[in-house]
Amino acid sequence: MVSIRVGNPSHDFVSALRILPSDEHQLVAVAARDLKSAQEFARIHGIPKAYGTYDELVGDPDVEVVYVGVINPHHLATVKLVLSHGKHVLVEKPLTLNEKGSQELMAIARRHNLFLMEALWSRFLPSYDFVMNAIKTGAIGQVYHVDVTFGKAVADEAKLARKALGGGTFMDIGIYTLNVVLMAFGDEQPLEVKAVGHLNQYGVDESVSAVFKYSDGRTANIATSARVNLSCEAHIVGTKGTIKIPFPFWCADKVYLNDVLHEFAFPPAAEVCNFVNSSGLRHEAVEVRRCLTSGRTESEVMPHEASRGLARLMDEIRRQVGVKYDVDD
Amino acid sequence: MVSIRVGNPSHDFVSALRILPSDEHQLVAVAARDLKSAQEFARIHGIPKAYGTYDELVGDPDVEVVYVGVINPHHLATVKLVLSHGKHVLVEKPLTLNEKGSQELMAIARRHNLFLMEALWSRFLPSYDFVMNAIKTGAIGQVYHVDVTFGKAVADEAKLARKALGGGTFMDIGIYTLNVVLMAFGDEQPLEVKAVGHLNQYGVDESVSAVFKYSDGRTANIATSARVNLSCEAHIVGTKGTIKIPFPFWCADKVYLNDVLHEFAFPPAAEVCNFVNSSGLRHEAVEVRRCLTSGRTESEVMPHEASRGLARLMDEIRRQVGVKYDVDD
């Protein structure tokens, strides 16, 4: 498996990958638009080959799977390039900027019988596996309400703030709140979505608050903010109890099931990481291998349909708060 | 001060009142539609006079202030009756079923120079006084987001469930979540309200989730449910920190200001109460006395404008989720 783009998420992902058995996951090559960056990245992580173009990387016959960590607006074209060269692909979230782009990639992957998965790492964590199992076994009865907030005072970070970089707080961190809602309700689409939000000077959202109406009395609330630090907790509430995923819910090492604490320790990553609990990124790499060795082109944990559902709801939320990307036309 | 209707809230209110100095607050009379109930209530609480009609009570020259605890649809007519006899009045929340009715009462009270206040008891608690002071002194910087949930698995309680009784979960408990939002934003009206909800077989709401957009980047989320027990916490989030009002937020004895715990103990009431922390109801009685002895017909803590703002937002939320009372026409 290899990495494209040498930014912070890629660094963390590769650091997490390096703690896995080397006979199962090999870092073959890294590519970046700037060869020097790729070489420096390769040096830090002990990767044999470094390329200054993505074409070189996807042409490398030793490369089997590509991890795409380029900026959001480049996901679509980069993944297309990877798939067109017959390589499997793991794409940093969001899969693309909208449902249309995501569906296009899914169609290509299916046509070429290639593996495609959105790297929404929460889904693959042992803590989330525990949560899903608790819901399925009825430990909290019927789920009626889900409440999740994710807010960090990071409004000035370019990646979030700039529309040209596919920015928007919801796209970057709000997606994790939506993911919990979708997981808790079995990736079902809500009957109704209502959202409000505030845009920054570049026309992308700095905050979004949204409510969801599901069938049979079910509801969900989410809030995201780049202005203030919200609780960053998730509450999944059922007729017989509650699952609380405390801060940092998106990469949880703790889960309260009916007030009983369950812990899920993260091992250290190979290098110092940029984000909290990044060694947990290894679970998505393990999932890619598990799927490929069993001949699957789609993960059951993060199926195409889940990515499509996420993208569809993100499109609707952006529409309601007034965030539009060029590719939406 | 006297009590009308001998239901649970009135019992708790009078039990709380009885721990106040008897030279400041005297229980003169109680009235109920059923004389026997009034007599039994009078016996329990040591009240000298019991009436089987409200007309007798409001005609009693010893009565100065009336506490109205009748069912929601009867607030409007009962308060009108009280005001027409020149008595001051404290009305159990909600003031009336909608903004129109509430404004009507305010106009009558002002015309007669009589005191009128909605007994939304949270507002008068020492814990809420502490919260408001923390916000005003900038202890959490500029408030950007408010998040409150109130859910109890009480869907079958008639008072909540029946439209004829002015039911609806939001009217009964959701009002407390809205109150926190309004208090945190200085009783300002939001620019936008979006709500979803589910109705029961009688056409009133069993759950409501709503989001609010305020000017200058501010947002709020609330959730209420009669189906499941929600966290029942309030989070007021600012640029410099967070105020967390833990369960039971609506009658809080604890407040976390930037993670530091502040406690506000409740004394025992005179009798065993129906609801949690009911001795705190004494603070609204103290506020009535404070206003009357200083010649005020309106409280600064719960001014008419705050009641009007609450009613207006409740009307809009009901409109969006499809709850309509007969008096809305």
Describe the protein's architecture and organization.
Chains A, B: Keywords: Oxidoreductase. Chains A, B: Residues 133-243 form the GFO/IDH/MocA-like oxidoreductase domain. Chains A, B: GO terms for molecular function: D-xylose 1-dehydrogenase (NADP+) activity; nucleotide binding; trans-1,2-dihydrobenzene-1,2-diol dehydrogenase activity. The structure is a homodimer of 329-residue chains. In chain A, 57% of the residues are buried. The two termini of chain A are 34 Å apart. The first copy, chain A, has 329 residues and is an alpha/beta fold. In chain A, the strands form 2 sheets. An 8-stranded mixed beta sheet of chain A has the order 8-9-10-7-11-12-13-14, covered by helices on one side. Chain A has a 6-stranded parallel beta sheet with strand order 3-2-1-4-5-6, with helices on both faces. Chain A folds into 2 domains: 2-122, 3-Layer(aba) Sandwich (Rossmann fold), CATH 3.40.50.720; 126-263, Dihydrodipicolinate Reductase, domain 2 (2-Layer Sandwich), CATH 3.30.360. The mean pLDDT of chain A is 95. Chain A has helices at residues 8-17, 35-45, 54-59, 75-84, 99-111, 126-136, 158-161, 169-184, 282-293, 304-321; strands spanning 2-4, 29-31, 49-51, 65-68, 88-92, 116-119, 143-151, 192-199, 205-213, 219-225, 234-238, 242-245, 254-257, 260-263. Helices cover 34% and strands 22% of the residues of chain A. Chains A and B meet through strand 7, strand 8, strand 9, strand 10 and strand 11 of A and strand 7, strand 8, strand 9, strand 10 and strand 11 of B.
